[in-house]
Write a structure and sequence with these properties.
single chain; about 325 residues; alpha/beta; eight-stranded parallel β-barrel; two-stranded antiparallel ribbon; 10 helices; globular; binds nicotinamide-adenine-dinucleotide; L-galactose dehydrogenase; NAD(P)_OxRdtase_dom_sf; AKR; L-galactose dehydrogenase activity
């Protein structure tokens, strides 16, 4: 008897790029051992499972694990032999293990290094990584023009910017010619504990940029096992998220599933990037997306968890340098 085809995640258009991204994107920072060690077998297994279940979008950076994430992702994509036109790879520039450098020189060299580690001829999206740590005027006047040249040279297809404080996006998008920045990647701002990206969505759409939201599990805060040591949240926020996770578990629900479904439910967001490092996580996250599309959100549990997190709602942490 023929086996049933696996349910797959939906694809969504990314702004004006013409790309169609899986609504669940594969965050590859865990492949750089950022959340604990990951073997080659686990890396290949997770990426293979991701493809099997319709995930076509992979996000990495030279910064993750000091280039390890790019290397492991490159090796894995090569081992799987999936045709290049069937997946979208985003990497970043300007943030490295030894610090930040958004100069035209550095980002121009950086893409060649990334392409070598990824074993690719081009990346679909090159994003300036965590621009709040650089001069935003340098991003506008030097870094993005350098990335435009890389686009013309065919090394990258689209240009993106990433970072935590939402004001960085308006600063840059208000100062570059329309259509220069194709993609914005925001993180930790569209989840159950912090949904401040929502207010910015109309503006971003008016600028025609594709919107990617990362870290729906708030970098581990909204998981049963909790965040890594380095997590920058306050003790109060960590404790409220822990209480929410326990509350869900005691009632047979899973906080990560609830959190991912919350982020996925806004279709103005083209892809929600979740960090994954095991076949099990890929299965769980794809299942969460498929169930959301079929049954909608678990409104009752969501309301209860939102009540637990209300005292810390939209609490964030400082990131970046003081802009002059
Ligand atoms: P996340 O919120 O996706 O959480 C990742 C953690 O959750 C990891 O420990 C992972 O093992 C765990 N996890 C994943 N699925 C799970 C499940 N079903 N059940 C329990 N635990 C689960 O945070 P993240 O990894 O920081 O963000 C996702 C991706 O977004 C990153 O890998 C990266 O690609 C991107 N990102 C980019 C930026 C930036 O550009 N500045 C910042 C943050 C994230």
């Amino acid at each position: 008897m023929a086996s049933q085809p696996l349910p797959k995640v939906e694809l969504r258009e990314l702004g004006n790029t013409g790309l169609k991204l899986s609504c669940v994107g594969f965050g590859a920072s865990p492949l750089g051992n950022v959340f604990g060690p990951v073997s080659d077998d686990e890396a290949i297994g997770s990426v293979r499972e991701a493809f099997r279940r319709g995930i076509n979008f992979f996000d990495t950076s030279p910064y993750y694990g000091g280039t390890l994430s790019e290397k492991v992702l490159g090796k894995t994509l090569k081992a799987l032999g999936v045709p290049r036109s069937e997946y979208v790879v985003a990497t970043k520039c300007g943030r490295y293990a030894d610090g930040f450098d958004f100069s035209a020189d550095r980002v121009t060299k950086s893409i060649d290094e990334s392409l070598e580690r990824l074993q690719l001829d081009y990346v679909d999206i090159l994003q300036c990584h965590d621009i709040e740590f650089g001069s935003l005027d340098q991003i506008v006047n030097e870094t993005i023009p350098a990335l435009k040249k890389l686009k013309e040279a065919g090394k990258i297809r689209f240009i993106g910017i990433t970072g935590l404080p939402l004001g960085i996006f308006t600063y840059v998008l208000d100062r570059v010619p329309a259509g220069t920045v194709d993609v914005v990647l925001s993180y930790c701002h569209y989840g159950i504990n912090d949904s401040t990206l929502e207010d910015l969505l109309p503006y971003l759409k008016s600028k025609g940029v594709g919107i990617i939201s990362a870290s729906p599990l708030a970098m581990g805060l909204l998981t049963e096992s909790g965040p890594p040591e380095w997590h920058p949240a306050s003790a109060e926020l960590k404790s409220a998220c822990r209480a929410a996770a326990v509350y869900c578990k005691e009632r047979g629900n899973n906080i990560s599933k609830l959190a991912l479904q919350y982020s996925l439910s806004n279709k103005d967001i083209s892809s929600v990037l979740v960090g994954m490092n095991s076949i099990k996580q890929v299965e769980e996250n794809v299942t969460a997306a498929v169930e959301l599309a079929t049954n909608g959100k678990n409104e009752k549990t969501l309301a209860e968890v939102e009540a637990i997190l209300k005292p810390v709602k939209n609490q964030t942490w400082p990131s970046g340098i003081q802009q002059s």
